[in-house]
Amino acid sequence: MAKSKLKEQLTRLRCATCKHVNYHTRKNKKSVSRKIELNKFCDWCRVHTTHKEARR
To answer: Is-contact 42 17, C-beta < 8 A?
Structure first.
């Protein structure tokens, strides 16, 4: 399989309260070294919660 020339990789976003993986996003690992935290809607909790980057 050919390697991607992009420096971005797909990362998973996990809900901080219920720990379900609800979203996927891309992150440029070269320019962003910290873990991503976004406020998203959780289908399991049915409210807006903080979603943090999860391990692969």
So the answer is: yes
